[in-house]
Amino acid sequence: MLSALDRSVVDAVPPGGNWRDLPENFPSQRVQQIRASAGRGEGSRSTYYGRLRWDRPSYTISTYFNRPGNGCFIHPSESRLITVREAARLQTFPDYWRFSGTLRQRAVQIGNAVPPLLGLAVARMFEAGSVVDLFAGAGGLSLGAALAGHSVVAAVDNEPAAVLAHNLNMPGDAAFVADLGDESSARRAWREAAARASGSVDLLIGGPPCQGFSTAGKALKDDPRNKLLWSYVEAADYLRPRALVIENVVALAQSRGRQQLGDVRKALDAMGYQTDVKILHAEGYGVPQRRRRTILVGTRGPLPDWTPPEHSIEPPAFMSSQPDGPQASKAQTVLDAIGDLQIPEGANLDVSVRLGSPRTSLQAWLRGERTQVDAAA
To answer: pTM of the full predicted structure?
Structure first.
């Protein structure tokens, strides 16, 4: 349930609004700090205390969507925050996908995930085969790979709740717990993954934890999570997949992580991989969310063509991921994704939603009423 202070935020902020719509004397030290920081030109925090708009994609769904002050998570028209299922839909997890653990653990599983439709667009670049997913979480990349026709034979994460969620949803109990930041644990995990793939991995995918690079964090050079990127590289050296994909925050390709990314590409080149990097925009691939991610692909043969975006991209746009020409369809919106969902008045974030009739093809796909994913993309 919302606190009295959070309730006053929800009541004050209009659709598309944010902390700037709160009264100057709003009784929150954090809001006053944000206001002062913006006044000094240190960043506007434009999504903080934000309310979604029905007619636009959402902003990035983070692990804190159960708090109004950490992003744009207020429901477009109701006096509440978005629910777990609504956040999952904005990430393009189908309604059958279940998450595990406490509310906080489920929020982390959703917010940290790669949107499955973005994962699908990347996985489509490669011939279908066996997949190993590192830092798999609840399975966003794994689901994208499965939708593209791949077979996920192993998925590794250090969080038992995320592994349980992965195995609740993906066939074969492919996921298992291992700490890839620990050398001995990582080597055991690689051996297990190789055994499950019968010694031949077609595609290695993974999104090493990004907090050490993210603009949402402090970007500490000695952040131990930065080393997890190298755990992925070591796994590639051990497993020698035909192709590989690394997913991470935009900052990995910019000032905060550019040196690390360059070193990673040099290491992969020494293993015989050709690599390419783009910043992809999730809304360009049917995700109703403005989420920008750095994607590195590598192959031991010729590099594949990137899957072109089919939907328009919201500014600002990075690198060469703009769709070609005016034929790109409009980006999916919050309404397209969750406009059919309702919850009982006064219910909390963890309530099961009531479904009306689907209003869009995206809703129909998320509900399992369309089997073709292209109907949602």
So the answer is: 0.92
